[in-house]
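Go through this pair.

…
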Amino acid sequence: MANDEQRYAVAPVSGPAPDTGRPGKHVPERKCILSGAHGARAELIRLALAPDGSVLPDLRAKAPGRGAWIGVDRAALETAIAKGKLKGALARAFKTGDITIPADLPERIEQGLCRAALDRLGLELRGGAVLTGSDRIAEGARRGQVQLLLHAADASEDGNRKLDQALRVGLDAEGSDLRGVVIPADRTILSMALGRDNVVHIGVTVPAAAARVADALGRWCGFIGRSESASALRNRSAGSIGATEI
């Protein structure tokens, strides 16, 4: 993300996203300054004001000082910027009119969320919670070990179908429409993110890791306009993701 190496930059996006809450735990909510709707803090994006008046995304919600939250997708944000609505909302939130909105703010947010999702996959791989390679994933899926199944954007339908079937077998869901999730990253991007050759499919085997990956992917997908997929991913379990493609 541009500007995040400057001395006044907001917190980097790698590492954990804001607390999403878990069953039995209070889930913090915030109000979107554009729509007025309330939502879980982890599902919104915090904007921070730098000392020079620049508005920067604070995707980890760690930057000091007053923040403003948005819960709209990229298309709605771009419209709000073009019409001056975002600047007005930020002026009220920050109580100052000395605000500069970078022209590429939506792109910075999208790229940051993408990077955070890919970084999360890399962290879970290093932690031993991720399987790659069709044969390994199929074996793990048939044993019921795969909690979250992901397919690259350019994966073949036949390859997806075989692993989806293995997932259903392992989760005792044969006859259902349960399947893995096609994510908005192709095999080249996934291979670079994970440091492996030809990563086309990913199986997450640890429930907590699957939840973290689903959260990170859900934030990214929600912002780029795949809200149905984002909602499905946030269910955090392979059994509730269903047939959604993103």
The beta strands are 29-31, 38-40, 45-49, 55-58, 67-70, 130-132, 148-151, 181-182, 201-204. The chain is about 40% helix and 15% strand. The longest helix spans residues 105-126. Residues 61 and 225 are 21 Å apart (CA to CA).
